[in-house]
């Protein structure tokens, strides 16, 4: 299905995740974050987003534990940065598919 994110028409799945991570933009990420209740993406948010995109590009499967052990963010901060499902929300903002470890 198509959605308009940051003025761009993009393909998303039924849960709103981008189907092609190559169409992701920072402006789109900020708009998705706002829709998820995150008013402003801080440098720490961007560090997590960059980490997720880098790991995804290298073919690594993500889990909350892996992010918490990454050295980018500890688990408590990860939950605070992306409330309501940190890995699901961070992945959505990063333009990635829903992690297989998330229900």
Describe the 3D structure.
The protein has 103 residues and is mainly alpha-helical. Helix content is 44%, strand content 8%. Strand 1 (2-5) and strand 2 form a beta hairpin. The longest helix has 15 residues, at 43-57. It is globular, with a radius of gyration of 13 Å. The model has no long low-confidence stretch (mean pLDDT 93).
Compact description:
The protein has 103 residues and is mainly alpha-helical.
Cα-atom Rg, whole angstroms? 13 Å
Number of strands: 2
Alpha plus pi helix count = 5
Sheet having the most strands: 2 strands, antiparallel
Distance between the termini: 21 Å
Cross-sheet strand order for the largest sheet: 1-2
Structural class: mainly alpha
> Any idea what the shape is?
globular
Low-confidence stretches: none
SSE run? EEHHHHH
